[in-house]
C-alpha cells in the first residue's frame, strides 16, 4: 500500500525530552481525514499510539516506564552463612534450611502415623542435595534447593538415620520377613523410593572415605529389602558392591558382603546365578598376586564365596562342575602340549587359589550329597598338577597342593593317598649336597610357588623343605591315626623315612625325621594292639566306623603329640605375623669389657671412687678380674728383677715404675665414660 506524507508531529525523534499531548491528538485527527486507510492500519496494528492518554503528565509516564524496567537486586553468594537464617524471616520458596530439616526429622520420628507427604518431601530434599553435588553447575532443577555444607550434611544425616525406620512404619513392616511389595501402601511410595535408591547408589559411587563408606553401607544394608524390589537397581547395586568387596578395606569388605548376601537372598531365584558368576570372576582377577599383605583379603573373598555357593547347592553344582572342568582342560593341555605357555596356565596363583576355593566348598558341604560327586575329579586335578613338573623348583607349589588335599581329606572324611607326594621329596633330592650360599633364616613358602636358582643354592632352602615335609607328614598321619588301616597306610612311608635317615649326613634333618618316625611307629603299635581286640568282621563298615570313632574320642599317641606341636607352631606363626623376632633383633646388645682393677678404683673427675658399670653382676666375676691382674703383675715383676741383675744401674727403679704403667695399660679401655652407656 502506498503511503502518503506523514505530518511533522509524527516525524519527531525519540530523543525529544517533551511531547505535547494536545498537538499529538490534533495530528491524529488530521491523519484520519487525510488518509483514512493508513489510520485504519494503525488502529489494527498499534492501538497504543491512537489511545494516547492525554490527561497523563510527563511524571506519570516516566513512573510507568521505570516500573516496567527490571532492576537487578544485590548479588548473594552460596555460603554457609545462608544456612543460619533468622527463624522469624520467611524462607525463599524451595530453599532448604536447618529449621525445615529439623521439622522433617521430628515428623519422621513421630509415634503416630507417618505421612506420605513427609516421606516424599524428605526424598525430594535428598535428591536436591545430590543434584548439588552431581550437577555441573551445582544448581537443582527440582522443587527444593540445598545450599551450604551444613544443610547438605543435615539432609544426608536425616535420611541415613531416620528414613528406613519411617518407611518401615509407613508400610507396616515392623515385623521382619515381610515382603514390601505385598504391603498395602507400597504402590504409593514406589516412585519416590526408586528415586531415592538411585540417588543413594550415586552417592555410594562417589565416596572414597572409609568412614563415610561404612556409614552408607550400613544404611544400604537396612534398605536392601527395598533394593530387591527393583531388578535394575538390584543389578546396579550388586555390581558396585562386588567391586568394593574385592578392593575395599577390611570393614568395608565385611559390610559389603553382608549387603550382597541380603540382597541376593531376598531375590535368590533371579539374582543368585548372576552373583555367583560375577563374584567368582572377581575373585580370580584379584588373586593373581599373592603377598603377606594380600593374603587376608584373598582368604576373606574365598570364605565369603563359599558362603554364597552354599545358599543353593543345586544351582551351585552347575557352576562348580563347569569351573572344575575348565581347570581340568587347562591341565590336560599342559600335559599333552609340553610348552611353557601351557604350563604357566596351570602353575600360577589363580589356578591354585581356584583349587583352594573348590576344596573349601566341598569340605563345608561334605554332609550334603549334592556336591560330593565332584570330590574325585577335583582330587585328580590337584594330584596331576603336582605331577606335571615334579622338580625341586616347584616344591612350594607341591606343598600348597598337599595342604589342600589334607584339609579336604580331613573335612570330607575321604581317604586320599597323600604320603607318596611327601616322601618323594626326601628320596628325590640330595640333602647332603653342600650349599653355595648362606641364609640367616629359612625360606617362607607361604607366598611362593616357584623357587629361583639363587634360592636353591641357599642352605635356607633345605631347612624350609625339611620343616614343611615334617609338618605336613605329622598333620596327615595325625588325621589318619585313628583309622583301622593306619599301620598299612604308613608302612611304605616308614621304610623310606628310615632310608633317608641312613643316607642323610645332616644331623639336624635326621634328628627331626627320627622323632617323626618314632611317633608313627608308636601309633602303629597302638592301633595293632587295639585291632587285636576286634571281634567283628573287617567287611562290616558300620562296626569299623564305630570303632574308629571310639579310637578318635579316646585319643591316639600321634594325635596327642600333634596337638601339642600345633600349639607351639601357631605361636611361632603369630610371632612372624607381628614381627616380634625382628623387633627383638634390633635391640642394642650390651657387650661386657674386661677392665683392670686399677682403672676401676682410679678416681677421675667424672667418677670419684670405684666405677661400677653393672651392679647386678656377681662378685665372682670381679674376683676373676683381680686374679688375672695379679698374675700379670707378678710376671712383670720377675722380668724386671732379671733386668736389674743384668744392667745394675741406679736409675733402673724409676724406669721400672714407668714400664709397670706401660705394661698394665694393655687391659685399659680407652675413652671410657659413663655417657657412652
Automatic annotation (TrEMBL):
Residues 598-608, 623-633 have a biased composition (Basic and acidic residues). PANTHER family: NUCLEOLAR COMPLEX 2 AND RAD4-RELATED (PTHR12687), NUCLEOLAR COMPLEX PROTEIN 2 HOMOLOG (PTHR12687:SF4). One of its GO terms (biological process) is ribosomal large subunit biogenesis. Keywords: Nucleus. Pfam families: Noc2. Residues 634-652 have a biased composition (Basic residues). It is found in: Nucleus. This is Nucleolar complex protein 2 homolog. One of its GO terms (molecular function) is transcription corepressor activity. Residues 1-29, 52-91, 598-677 are annotated as: Disordered. One of its GO terms (cellular component) is Noc2p-Noc3p complex. Residues 55-66, 656-669 have a biased composition (Acidic residues).
